[in-house]
């Protein structure tokens, strides 16, 4: 334990920081300015960035911020880099980085293996492992008789089921405690006898022939009999001690001192001190070195000056010599300065020209004098005092009191396995009929009748549950229901929509426990007695006929009373609502303990609906009601209670994929389906608030003059048509459409996402009638008869459909804005004087533009967001674009009203005629193109049906189809662009048959595996420019510490050459290590996350330059399944230094293109021929070298490839796993993934699965891989895959296919892995007879404590340690079809897994108030520091006054408003309160007129006044901004006059007019004194919030202030006087919902009246405040503090008081 703590401390030291900016120091990279530590002359260290900033101010010097000493920097900023680096801090940083790297690498050790640093020599008494001989042996196998280390024991004994039964015995086990021992003299003989003479155990051979012959011998059994009597009490004591030790071991960690707390401060102080000493030492070192340079310069300077002087004299003398020679050689020249030349020559004798060495004094040489005492003093510098105290003592049981000695049971002995794993069936079949339906017909005589179809009709409505009157025994009274209370329920029994039974979801766990107890008692011998006297109303235990389990029931009537043997009882199952007739032998008397629980059945009726006609509820209505409620958890809202029947509204909760969707009301659905009608029209909205309708994101607006490419999707006439932009979003739109088809066409999604109650303006997914595909739509009208009118938002056309074609639109399909944009042609008008378009014009326009691609130019933008456009089309490549506006006029279908629709000239008409037959498809796209983010080989035609025009009869496959090369056509944004061609591409193509041809496309080989799989990339200037731009962009970039996901595109720096490449993340190896695929070159690399950057948008526009290839129609010579090393090296050598050109040889196979590579060779000129280039086929070269041979079927000589008959295996798919039917069972968690899914296997003796696993290993252990070209793998296909950790084969299914690997999921264990294609097998048919053995579960009411909702790695490690591979008790809480089971997991030590994780802070409860608590903290901070509003009048401490609770923020924080005062209560303060309340009413009216027209709030920040539109009633109120805008442009606003807060969009926030500033905030924030959450809860629960709302919300209570900062107080009931006042929430305290801890000192001070001084201080403060207010202007007076309270209601309550 201590070793681990020390490791943690050493690895968690923070890097040193700059004292100026507090930023961490960072080493220098690539000459880029980082936070490099540099030393000033004074010895203090600062980062380079801070020094540069300080130098910019002082220019040539910098003053130390610590000691103010000046360091001179003559060259300004340039001199900063010449300062000495602090080598101590630099070395510390490097050591820290290396230590962190080593720790991360240690984590990569395979699970179950023990890390080792090498072979060690055992000390005396130590023994080495006999398996690895590297580690010390720690255990001994009880069967193998071999000593091993722990890692080897697990590794060896996990290979088979037999070895798994062996147990590891500790090496230090006392041999005297072994039950059997061998004789030391006779090997293999057990000690069976005891020699009384020698007092030693002996064997049978010792008795006969040994030294003990003739001694008194006793058998060991007789000898041990005297010990057995003493063993039982000793065993009991030992068990108690073991339990104590287990408990102490779990809590012992608390007694260890926290190493971080104990040592961090001291270690930081030591490090900072010695860091300063190192800085001083380095500064002194620098100073001494500068002195050495100065001393050296002092001796050199005279020689330097003499040398310069001699050079000058020499130059002057040489000039004089040349002048003299010139004079002497030319007698005819007249020389004027001959005398000066002579004088200069004569001065030569005075010039020093000889240098001789001089003797120097050795004692005065430059040297360094050391201070010998300093190193010695360093070793003793400083001292550490004190020590960590031992915080625990050890005692035996005899030394401690009895209560401590007996506290370790903790209830462990009172439970049995039956209590935790036994199950009970409910009185209905869970497999099929979760809801029992009774049909009720309204006949005048109420006679018994029945209806075919499986619906049972009861005899009389008076006999149904809830209506029976009895006077006998009864369970405890059911809990009262609160009006407006919302609960989750399940429907258990149906008569009709106005009479059905429900069970509360929260009661079902209690009911299951009660059912287990009832069945356990009923099956005992004590419960065999059959009751003899039974009367109506008696409570009994009844054996249900469908599942033969026992349930609570009540006798409704007794049949056949005359004959006891034939007596039958009609009983009502009081917990479910159904009834049946049973024999007396199936009935038992109910014990009293089973009557303590209330009836769990609740009778309900749908509120305010009746049958559509007088004939009563139809069979169709009841069956539809059953369909919508069957086996579903519903959301019940209680409206009222009449005669113990709850009138409710049931709604389907919003599913996870549509969090913001309005819950679907069952009442509304029945009314829409015309199976019911509302009694009153206004009853359709029971909450009184409008439903929040989800909306599509508004598309980005276009502006006048914009030009972009579009496709016309829907046409009415030239003034009404829709376009869809072709751009960056097209690929995403295609993927979304493809995913929508897969999601909504699943069989199990029919009922889950069906919309039973459409609403106007509701977004939805609608199945189009012409092609039965699903498209995004919005409902525009409800014409009746179950029909709806929709408009398809991505295409613009409309349709009337049946409601059954509608589906709920998932949130993931709302991300993309609506794609259809409404347009009209500009400058054209109908020829008809009626201003309507003729049928001929409409027909011509539809034929010419529908489903066609155009270039659009925005001419005008109208007020209703309709674009007036010019539609242009290019008829000839490179030619001018033709305006469809003008063509419409030229054809005579319209008249021109402006310059943008002029008729065509004759030249333009001729050009159109010449180009009308040409294709508009750009065929110059590269065959290898790969759109970044979507590989062209994986883009199916089906996924590209996105831009379908939804006109009847139109094929959905015409738009955005793949280009001939496989890439997406028309995917670039903006106006239409021509493809960029390389010089070779611009040449005219030639046939490729001749060896002298010049091929078109030049390529290079990127990643190479063998001739059957390699990547090539196109040689293009675009690629070179892209690489240069990326290098410039990212070369000096800082690391981006963001969370990366698989399949994300990014920029990655390759470790080999340190260059930046475009890449795709293929695998997250570790949180700091990822595998990436370089999309432009085909390489696979492993890089650190610090070497990744977000890819700039324009870098992702161009297609990827690499694609996979293989040499066509050849196989390896010799062994046709494996390529030889010689063949691979030959191909690499021949292609390394030559230009390569690619030649396509067929269509793609498995995403790999069959090609031949053409090699370009320079042929030098000869006497007969000039120099030229030769082109040779690589395939032919390898054939000539005998390295390849033609593939089977390739010898026919045909140029088209011959299809080879593939070896096929039957494609199989696994059946879904079958979870246990029992709701409580023992299971083993086998895997937990990042998405919080737990994979479970049920514990059962399934020899069949074991035999199948062994047969799989035997068949595939030496099997050959399938040939790549023989297989056509499919998604979700069943297979057998190889798992690398244990080298075993397991059943799996395919999740994704990639060029070099495949991702599989092991169906019997749940984990996933990427494996190469040679590690999977398709012949799985013989192993399909068993379904997958593991099934998915999630922890009930538990979610990860992360923003992403996924488990972090640390939590996963903890989960695996706690529960994986350990048998646990699993309780199923909820079953939802096609979803993981919601379960509770009881660990082997009987702890609840969710509770353990919550204590560790790793998870939170789904019903947690965490968001409300965080908002409350933000509000408290802003109100305390940035509140611009003034406060309402305050009362003194201890004074009681009436308030209205307007809002409950969290259970212990409320907001109140003062109430009105009248009569005798009036005084100055009450008058002020009444006046402010009057102003508040008047201000509310004025503010709702001014709010909508107020200007938007500019740059909102916490503490700003504002007015905001409240989402509940859409009225405007004064507010206070609490948080800054988030990424969705939302802010948290507090409505200061009522205390309510909500997150508001910025378009609903306005500046607060100045005339509303002066009124103080009317809502006061009050913290309830002494109130906190219960100690057993980690935080506030939703139950506490709801209960607090119930007892205080919108009620007038008495308040007593206990403290002012922050404002704290208590709330009392208004009944009685304050002397015996009762807390409003006292009942919640008594029930344990709230925890109250009384502050006695404060209470005594308040109640005794001893706070007079404080009250005077408060009054003085009030006087000062009034004086201050008088001195302020109206604008400077700032108010504070929403629940909307009706004035009349408020006055009514005051009057009542």
Explain the overall architecture.
By secondary structure, the protein is α+β, with helices and mostly antiparallel strands. It is built from 35 helices and 75 strands. The strands form 19 sheets. A five-stranded mixed beta barrel has the order 13-14-20-23-22. Strands 18-17-16-15-19 form a five-stranded antiparallel sheet. It has a five-stranded mixed barrel with strand order 26-27-33-36-35. Strand 17 (568-573) and strand 18 form a beta hairpin. The radius of gyration is 45 Å and the shape is globular.
The termini sit apart by 66 Å
The percent range for strand residues is 15-25%
Number of strands: 75
Q: Helix coverage percent of residues?
A: 25-40%
Number of helices: 35
Q: Nearest-angstrom radius of gyration?
A: 45 Å
Principal-axes geometry comes out as: globular
Low-confidence stretches: 1-12, 109-120, 407-472, 476-480, 912-998, 1195-1206, 1640-1697
| Arrangement of strands in the largest sheet | 13-14-20-23-22
* Secondary-structure class: alpha+beta
Write a concise synopsis of the structure shown:
The chain is of the alpha+beta class and 1697 residues long.
Identify the notable features of this structure and list them briefly.
alpha+beta, five-stranded mixed barrel, disordered N terminus, single chain, 26% helix, 1697 residues, five-stranded antiparallel β-sheet, globular, disordered C terminus
């Amino acid at each position: 334990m201590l070793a681990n703590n020390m490791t943690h401390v050493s690895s968690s030291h923070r890097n040193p920081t700059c004292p100026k900016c507090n930023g961490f120091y960072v080493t220098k990279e690539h000459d880029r300015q980082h936070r490099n530590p540099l030393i000033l002359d004074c010895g203090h260290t600062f980062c380079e960035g801070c020094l540069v900033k300080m130098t910019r101010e002082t220019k040539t010097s910098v003053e130390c911020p610590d000691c103010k000493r000046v360091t001179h920097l003559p060259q300004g900023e340039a001199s900063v880099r010449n300062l000495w680096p602090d080598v101590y801090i630099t070395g510390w940083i490097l050591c820290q980085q290396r230590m962190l790297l080593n720790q991360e690498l240690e984590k990569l050790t395979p699970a179950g293996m023990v890390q080792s640093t090498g072979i060690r020599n055992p000390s005396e008494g130590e023994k080495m492992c006999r398996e690895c001989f590297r580690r010390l042996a720690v255990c001994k196998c009880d069967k193998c008789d071999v000593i091993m280390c722990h890692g080897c024991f697990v590794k060896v004994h996990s290979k088979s089921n037999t070895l798994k039964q062996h147990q590891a015995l500790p090496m230090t086990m006392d041999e005297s405690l072994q039950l059997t021992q061998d004789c030391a003299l006779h090997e293999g003989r057990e000690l069976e006898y005891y020699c009384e003479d020698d007092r030693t155990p002996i064997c049978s051979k010792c008795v006969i022939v040994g030294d003990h012959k003739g001694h008194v011998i006793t058998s060991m059994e007789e000898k041990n009999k005297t010990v057995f009597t003493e063993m039982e009490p000793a065993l009991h004591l030992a068990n108690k001690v073991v339990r104590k030790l287990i408990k102490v071991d779990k809590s012992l960690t608390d007694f260890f001192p926290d190493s971080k707390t104990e040592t961090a401060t001291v270690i930081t102080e030591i490090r900072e001190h010695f860091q300063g000493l190192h800085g001083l030492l380095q500064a002194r070192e620098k100073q001494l070195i500068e002195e050495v340079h100065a001393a050296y310069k002092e001796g050199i300077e005279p020689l330097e000056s003499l040398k310069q002087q001699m050079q000058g004299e020499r130059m002057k003398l040489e000039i004089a010599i040349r002048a003299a020679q010139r004079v002497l050689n030319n007698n005819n020249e007249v020389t004027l300065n001959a005398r000066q030349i002579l004088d200069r020559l004569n001065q030569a004798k005075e010039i020093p020209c000889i240098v001789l060495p001089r003797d120097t004094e050795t004692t005065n040489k430059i040297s360094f004098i050391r201070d010998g005492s300093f190193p010695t003093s360093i070793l003793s510098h400083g001292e550490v005092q004190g020590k960590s105290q031992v915080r625990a003592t050890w005692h035996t049981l005899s030394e401690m009191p009895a209560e401590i000695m007996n506290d370790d049971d903790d209830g462990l002995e009172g439970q049995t396995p039956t209590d935790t794993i036994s199950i009970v069936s409910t009185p209905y079949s869970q497999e099929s009929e979760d809801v029992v339906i009774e049909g009720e017909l309204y006949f005048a005589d109420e006679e018994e009748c029945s209806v075919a179809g499986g619906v049972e009709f009861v005899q009389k409505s008076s006999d149904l549950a809830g209506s029976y009157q009895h006077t006998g025994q009864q369970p405890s009274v059911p809990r009262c229901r609160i009006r407006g209370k919302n609960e989750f329920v399940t429907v258990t029994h149906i008569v009709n929509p106005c009479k059905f039974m429900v069970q509360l979801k929260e009661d079902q766990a209690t009911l299951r426990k009660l059912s287990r107890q009832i069945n356990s008692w009923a099956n005992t011998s004590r419960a065999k007695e059959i009751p003899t006297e039974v009367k109506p109303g008696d409570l009994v235990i009844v054996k249900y006929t469908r599942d033969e389990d026992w349930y609570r029931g009540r006798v409704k009537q007794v049949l056949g009373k005359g004959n006891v043997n034939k007596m039958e009882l009609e009983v009502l199952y009081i917990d479910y609502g159904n009834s049946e007739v049973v024999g007396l032998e199936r009935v038992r008397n109910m014990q009293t303990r089973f009557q303590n629980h209330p009836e769990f059945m609740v009778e309900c009726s749908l509120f305010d609906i009746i049958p559509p006609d007088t004939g009563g509820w139809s069979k169709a209505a009841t069956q539809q009601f059953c369909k919508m409620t069957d086996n579903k958890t519903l959301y019940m809202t209680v409206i009222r209670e009449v005669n113990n029947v709850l009138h409710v509204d049931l709604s389907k909760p919003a599913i996870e994929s549509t969090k913001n969707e309005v819950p679907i009301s069952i009442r509304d659905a029945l009314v829409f389906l015309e199976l019911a009608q509302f009694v009153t029209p206004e009853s359709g909205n029971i909450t009184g608030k409008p439903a929040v309708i989800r909306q599509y994101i508004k598309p980005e607006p276009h502006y006048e003059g914009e030009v972009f490419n579009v496709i016309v999707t829907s046409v009415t006439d030239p003034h009404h048509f829709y376009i869809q932009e072709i751009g960056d979003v097209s690929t995403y739109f295609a993927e979304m459409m493809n995913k929508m088809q897969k999601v909504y066409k699943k069989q199990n999604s029919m009922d889950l996402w069906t919309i039973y109650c459409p609403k106007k303006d509701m977004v939805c997914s609608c199945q189009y009638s012409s092609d039965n595909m699903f498209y995004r739509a919005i409902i525009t009208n409800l014409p009746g008869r179950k029909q709806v009118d929709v408009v398809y938002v991505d295409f613009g056309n409309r349709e009337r459909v049946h409601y059954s074609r509608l589906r709920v639109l998932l949130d993931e399909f709302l991300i993309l804005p609506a794609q259809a944009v409404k347009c009209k042609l500009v400058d054209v008008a109908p020829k008809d004087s009626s201003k309507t378009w003729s049928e001929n014009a409409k027909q011509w326009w539809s034929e010419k533009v529908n489903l066609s691609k155009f270039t659009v130019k925005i001419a005008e933008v109208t007020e209703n967001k309709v674009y007036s456009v010019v539609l242009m089309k290019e008829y000839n490549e490179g030619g001018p674009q033709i305006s469809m506006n003008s063509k419409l006029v030229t054809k005579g279908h319209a008249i021109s009203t402006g310059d943008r629709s002029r008729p065509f000239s004759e030249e333009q008409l001729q050009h159109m005629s010449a180009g009308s037959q040409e294709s508009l498809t750009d065929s110059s796209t590269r065959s290898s193109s790969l759109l970044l983010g979507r590989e062209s080989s994986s883009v199916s035609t089906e996924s590209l049906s996105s831009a379908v025009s939804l006109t009847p009869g139109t094929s959905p496959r015409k738009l955005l189809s793949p280009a001939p090369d496989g890439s997406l056509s028309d995917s670039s944004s903006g106006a239409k662009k021509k493809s960029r061609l390389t010089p070779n591409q611009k040449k005219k193509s030639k046939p490729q048959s001749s060896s002298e041809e010049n091929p078109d496309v030049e390529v290079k080989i990127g990643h190479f595996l063998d001739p059957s799989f390699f990547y090539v990339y196109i040689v293009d200037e675009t690629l070179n420019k892209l690489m240069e731009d990326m290098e410039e962009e990212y070369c000096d970039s800082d690391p981006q510490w963001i969370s990366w996901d698989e399949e994300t595109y990014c920029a990655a720096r390759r470790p080999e050459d340190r260059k930046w490449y475009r890449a795709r993340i293929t695998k997250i190896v570790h949180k700091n290590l990822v595998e990436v695929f370089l999309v432009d070159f085909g390489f696979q690399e492993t890089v650190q996350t610090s070497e990744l950057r977000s890819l700039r948008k324009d870098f992702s526009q161009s297609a990827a330059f690499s694609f996979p290839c293989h040499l066509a129609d050849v196989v390896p010579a010799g062994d046709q399944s494996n390529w030889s090393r010689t063949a691979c090296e030959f191909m690499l050598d021949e292609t390394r230094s030559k230009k390569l050109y690619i030649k396509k040889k067929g269509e793609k196979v498995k995403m790999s293109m069959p090609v031949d590579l053409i090699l370009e060779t320079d042929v030098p000129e000869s006497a007969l021929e000039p120099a030229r280039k030769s082109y040779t086929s690589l395939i032919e070269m390898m054939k000539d070298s005998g390295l390849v041979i033609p593939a089977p079927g390739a010898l026919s000589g045909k140029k088209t490839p011959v299809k080879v008959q593939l070896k096929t295996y039957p494609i199989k798919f696994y059946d879904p796993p079958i979870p246990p039917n029992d709701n409580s069972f023992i299971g083993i968690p086998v895997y937990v993934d990042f998405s919080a899914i737990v994979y479970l296997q049920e514990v059962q003796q399934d020899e069949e699965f074991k035999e199948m696993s062994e047969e799989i290993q035997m068949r595939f252990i030496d099997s050959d891989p399938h040939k790549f070209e023989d297989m056509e793998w499919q998604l979700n296909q069943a297979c057998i895959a190889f798992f690398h950790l244990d080298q075993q084969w397991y059943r799996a299914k395919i999740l994704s296919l990639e060029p070099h690997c495949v991702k599989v999921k092991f169906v019997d264990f749940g984990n996933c892995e990427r494996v190469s294609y040679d590690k999977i097998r398709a012949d799985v048919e013989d192993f399909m007879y068993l379904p997958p053995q593991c099934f998915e579960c999630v922890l009930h009411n538990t979610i990860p404590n992360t923003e992403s909702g996924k488990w972090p790695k640390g939590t996963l490690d903890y989960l695996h340690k706690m529960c994986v591979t350990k048998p646990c008790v699993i309780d199923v809480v909820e079953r939802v079809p096609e979803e993981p089971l919601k379960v509770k997991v009881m660990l082997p030590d009987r702890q609840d897994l969710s509770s353990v994780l919550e204590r560790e802070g790793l998870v939170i409860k789904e019903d947690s108030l965490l968001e409300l608590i965080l908002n409350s903290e933000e509000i408290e901070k802003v109100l305390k520091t940035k509140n611009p509003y003034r406060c309402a009048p305050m009362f003194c401490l201890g004074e009681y006054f009436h308030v209205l609770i307007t809002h409950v923020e969290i259970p212990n924080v409320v907001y109140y408003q003062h109430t009105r005062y009248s009569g005798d209560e009036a005084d100055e303060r009450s008058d002020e309160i009444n006046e402010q309340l009057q102003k508040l009413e008047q201000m509310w009216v004025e503010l709702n007129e001014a709010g909508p027209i107020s200007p938007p709030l500019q740059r909102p920040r916490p503490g700003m006044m504002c007015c905001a539109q409240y989402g509940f009633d859409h009225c405007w109120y004064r507010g206070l901004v609490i948080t800054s805008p988030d990424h969705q442009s939302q802010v948290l606003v507090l409505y200061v006059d009522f205390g309510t807060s909500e997150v508001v969009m910025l378009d609903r926030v306005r500046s607060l007019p100045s005339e509303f500033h002066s009124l103080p905030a009317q809502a006061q924030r009050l913290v309830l004194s002494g109130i906190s959450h219960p100690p057993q809860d980690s935080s506030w629960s939703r139950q506490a919030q709801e209960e607090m709302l119930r007892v205080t919300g919108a009620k007038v209570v008495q308040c007593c202030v206990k403290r002012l900062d922050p404002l704290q107080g208590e709330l009392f009931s208004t009944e009685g006087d304050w002397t015996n006042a009762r807390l409003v929430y006292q009942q919640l305290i008594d029930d344990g919902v709230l925890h109250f801890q009384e502050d006695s000192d404060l209470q005594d001070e308040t109640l005794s009246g001893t706070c007079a001084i404080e009250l005077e201080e408060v009054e003085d403060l009030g006087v000062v405040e009034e004086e201050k207010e008088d001195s302020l202007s109206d604008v400077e007076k700032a108010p504070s503090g929403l629940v909307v309270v009706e004035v009349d209601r408020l006055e009514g309550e005051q009057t009542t008081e």
